[in-house]
Amino acid sequence: MSASIRECLELQLLEMEMLFSMFPNKEDIILDDAKFVPSIRNYVEGIQHTLPPFVGYTVFVKTEDEKVKAEMHVSLPHSYPTKEPQLFVRSDSLEKQQHNDLNKGLSSFISSLDRGDLCIMNAVQWLKDNLPSYIQNIKHNTEPESDLKRLPTFHRMWIYSHHIYRQELKKKILDCAKCLNLSGFCLTGKPGIICVEGEKDHCEEFWRDIRYPNWKHISCKHAETIEVTGTIDNLRLFTSFEELIFAAHGDYGLRNDYHMDLGQFFDYLKQHQSEHIFQILFGIEGRS
């Protein structure tokens, strides 16, 4: 098994080299972590014996006339190309339904290819060729707006992670929540807890963005949905989105592997009428 994984990782390295030559500008292809390549190379050469993390990167694609831009997020399992890659495309030029249709079309195209063959460059070309048709689809399907605006749906998500340490990940969580007008918090350390509340579509977009490409040990433990009759803000338990840092215990060197004081966290939940969530998150009753 390890031999076939090693062969797959060799092919992944080869494909990345081809992509870098295909996209010479640094801003056109961005790795999720710059350590991916040396870690994989060390494993392939037998210097490293533990499996490297999954490869993840983003390719920024433009149509031939450069009028439409899209970003294709790529996540590769260790056994790619014998298994399909995980791909997700976003574009400011597309509406929600067109995003769904485009990603379904791309997924169908990838499924039609022979497993064992590298396919990211094929996916890039497919995107360049087909992206304009989805833009046209928006124009054809546009209908006059109804006099009655659709009422938004309020949503609150309680997300549990084994830990949240990395500075760039914390920044991504904070930036994404603020960009989508979500309130709530991110409890960093071990465990890591995230709460977001706001419009349902925005919460789901946040959840999709932060867990991509393959964040292990993260799950949505509980979600609440309410039809809005007044305003979204009247349903919020939190006034903004903030990072929580409580007293910690345990410090194991460079990893900063510390556990948050859950008593303080329980008090914080009580202050925001959410103490019942403690048992949902941890399986035990909370105490100050």
UniProtKB/TrEMBL annotation:
Gene3D superfamilies tied to this protein: Ubiquitin Conjugating Enzyme (3.10.110.10)
- Species whose genome carries this gene: Pyxicephalus adspersus
Q: Which residues form the RWD domain?
A: 14-134
The name under which this protein is listed is RWD domain-containing protein
Quote the InterPro entries the UniProt record gives. Answer: Phi-like (IPR017359), Prp3_C (IPR010541), RWD_dom (IPR006575), RWDD2A-B_C (IPR059181), UBQ-conjugating_enzyme/RWD (IPR016135)
Could you name the domain of life of the organism this protein comes from?
Eukaryota
